[in-house]
Amino acid sequence: MTRGSQTTVGWGNIRSTYDTVVIGAGPAGCATAACLAAHGASVLLVESNPKAARRFAGEWVHPEGVRVLQVQGLLEGLSDHVVTSGFVVFPNDGLGPIQLDYPEGTTGLACEHETLVTHVRRRVAEFPGVDYAEGVRAQPVGGDAVDLVARGGEAKRVHAKLVAVAAGRSSRDVVSPDPMREAQVSISQMAGLLVADSQLPCEGYGHVLVGGPGPVLAYRIDANRIRLCFDVPHASHRGAHAAEWIWKSFAEVLPPMLREGVRKELAQTSLSWASIAFRPRRYRTESGVALVGDVAGIFHPLTALGITMSVLDAEALAEASSLTEYAAHRASRSYIPELLSNAIYQAFVRDDAGSEAIREAIFATWRSSPAHRSRTMKLLGAASTGRAEFVRAFSHVAVRAGAAALTSDRRTVEELASWLRWPWASLHPQPDAIRSRSLSWAAPESWASRDFFRSPQPLKEKQHAN
Ligand SMILES: Cc1cc2nc3c(=O)[nH]c(=O)nc-3n(C[C@H](O)[C@H](O)[C@H](O)COP(=O)(O)OP(=O)(O)OC[C@H]3O[C@@H](n4cnc5c(N)ncnc54)[C@H](O)[C@@H]3O)c2cc1C
Q1: For a Cys staple, 266 with which of 218, 243, 285, 406, CB 3.0–4.6 Å?
Q2: What is the b/e burial string over 65-88, where b = at least 16 CB atoms within 10 angstroms of the residue's CB?
Q3: Which atom of ligand 1 lies nearest, measured to the CA of 53?
Q4: Does residue 26 have its Cβ closer than 6 Å to ligand 1?
C-alpha cells in the first residue's frame, strides 16, 4: 500500500513471524531496521503516530551519524538539507568567535526534523526485507513477541527473534516500568524559531551564541530557513509574552545580521517549545529487548548528539552477536558524549565564579591551538568516545582553571573542585553509577558539598536532602 510517498504494509499483510520487530520509526527505529535488513534480517518496523515527526526535535547530524545513514542508503534523494562543516562559538567576551571544524574530509548535515524523518521512513520502507506498518501501536511481550493494535482496535501478536524498542524518550515504559525512571532530571525549555530570508555569519556552521540566559544554537536547515534554538531556564517567562521575553533576553547575543529577521519572526510566528531533560544512557537488557535511541537516555541538545547516538546504537545492534554484547558496547561508548554534553552546557550556563573560570579556560584552550579544537570536535561528534581522548582534550582546560584557582577565594576553589563530580560519579559500580550521574546535575551549592562525593543514596532521599 502506498500512502503519500510512503510504502506501508497493510494490516492484513503483516506476517506472524519476523527476525526482528522494531518499535518506533523515528531516526533510531529507521536506522535499526535498515542496519538489520542489511545484515539479511526480515524486519517489521512499527510506527504508532507518524505525525509525531512534526514536533520540534533533532535536525543536526554529526559526521558519524551521516556515515551510518549514508552507508545504509537512507539519505539518498534527500534534497532539502544543508551540508555542515562544524560549529562557530560566539563567547561574547569581546575576543571574537571560535571556529571548530569537523575532522578533514568529514561533514555533518542539518535538515528540518520532519523532512529528515519522513525521508528516512520512506527510504527504509522501500528496502527488501522491511515491512513498515503505520498507525499501529506495539507492545513487547517478553523478548520474542510483540502485541500490535491498529487504530481501528484490531489486534494481533507477532513473534520475532529480536525485539528492538526505539520508541523515543517519553515512551520508555513501553518496555517495562523503568526502576531508574526517577533518574531523569528536568533541565530547561527550548524555544524553536524559523527565520526566512536571512544570512548567518558563517554559512554551513552551527552557531553557538553564549551570554544570554541560556545558550542559543542557530543553523541553516535549507536554502531559505535558519533555525534558532533558545535555551530558556525554567524560571523564565513562557506565557503570552514569551516572544517578547526572548527578544529582550537574547537580542544582544544575536549576530547583528540576524537580529532584524529574528525580531520580525518573533512578532509574527509562534514559537515551538520542547522540554529538555537529562537521563543517563542505560541499555537495560532485563526485559530481553534491545533499547535503541532516546529510549536508552537523553542529553541536552546543545551538543546535537541524539540522532548520531541513535544511529550508532542501530549500527552496533546489527553487528553485535548478543543483546549483552550490544548493551556493553554502547554503554562504554555513551559516557564520554554524556560527560561532554553536560559539561559544555553547564560551563555555558552557570554564572558561579568556578564555572566562569572553566568557561574562560575552555575558550582560551580552543583559541590556543588547532589540535585542541580538533580533539574537541572528534569528541563532540562521537567520533572518539574514549576516556583517554577526553583527558587529552580537556587536561589543558583543567590546568588553566586550576591556575586561576590559585588566586581565587575558597568558594571558587570549592566550585571548581565540584566539577570532578562527573568523573567521580562514573566510578561507582552499576546501577549506582546511573544514579550518581543523574545526581551530577544538582545545583552548584550541592556539588560543592562534601555529601555529593559520599556513596550515593537512593535518588528521592537525596533530592529531599537537598
Ligand atoms: C528541541 C530539541 C532539539 C533537538 N536537536 C537535536 C539536534 O539538533 N541533533 C540531534 O542529534 N538531536 C537533537 N535532539 C534529540 C533528537 O530529536 C532525538 O535524539 C531523536 O529524535 C531520537 O530519535 P528516536 O528515534 O530515539 O526517538 P523519536 O524521534 O522520539 O521517535 C520515536 C518514535 O516511536 C514512536 N512510538 C512511540 N511509542 C510507540 C509504540 N508503542 N508503538 C509504535 N511506535 C511508537 C513515536 O511515535 C516516534 O515516532 C533534539 C531534541 C529536542 C527536544
Answers
A1: 243
A2: bbbbbeebebbeebeebbebbbbb
A3: 49
A4: yes
Q: By the 8 A CB rule, do 13 and 37 touch?
A: no
Same domain, 177 and 37: yes
Q: Which atom of ligand 1 is nearest to the CA of 49?
A: 47
Quote the number of domains for the chain.
Answer: 2
Ligand 1: atom nearest CA of 30 is 25
| Strand, coil or helix: 398 | helix
User: What is the model's pLDDT at position 149?
Assistant: 96
What is the value of ipTM here, to two decimals?
Answer: 0.99
Domain boundary among 319, 348, 376: 319
CA of 236 to the centre of ligand 1 (A): 25
Give me ligand 1 centre to Cα 319, in Å: 23
Tell me, what CATH number does 137's domain have? 3.50.50.60
Going from the Cα of 338 to the center of ligand 1, the distance in angstroms, rounded, reads 17
Beta carbons of 183 and 296 less than 8 angstroms apart: no
**pLDDT at residue 465 tops 70:** no
Place of cell 515512551: 171
Is the minimum distance from the CB of 381 to ligand 1 under 6 angstroms?
Answer: no
* pLDDT surpassing 70 at residue 291: yes
Q: What is the pLDDT of residues 38-70, one digit of tens each?
A: 999 999 999 999 999 999 999 999 999 999 999
Same domain? 132 vs 164: yes
Mean per-residue pLDDT, 239-264: 93
What is the model's pLDDT at position 286? 78
Place of cell 555529601: 451
* CA–CA separation, 389 and 391 (whole Å): 5
Q: Quick one: pLDDT at residue 442?
A: 57
Q: Do 20 and 133 sit in the same domain of this protein?
A: yes
Helix (H, G, I), strand (E, B) or coil at 253: helix
Nearest CA to ligand 1 atom 50: 58
- In percent, the amount of the chain with pLDDT more than 90 equals 66
Spatial separation of the C-alpha atoms in residues 448 and 133, rounded to whole Å: 51
Question: By alpha-carbon position, which residue is closest to atom 31 of ligand 1?
Answer: 26
Domain identity same for 354 and 292: no
| Residue among 21, 54, 59, 117 whose CB has most ligand 1 atoms within 8 A, to mutate | 59
Band of residue 266 on the pLDDT scale cut at 50, 70, 90:
very high
Is 288 inside a domain boundary? yes
Domain that holds residue 13: 2-55+64-77+113-182+282-319
Q: Is 66 in the pocket of ligand 1 (CB under 6 A)?
A: no
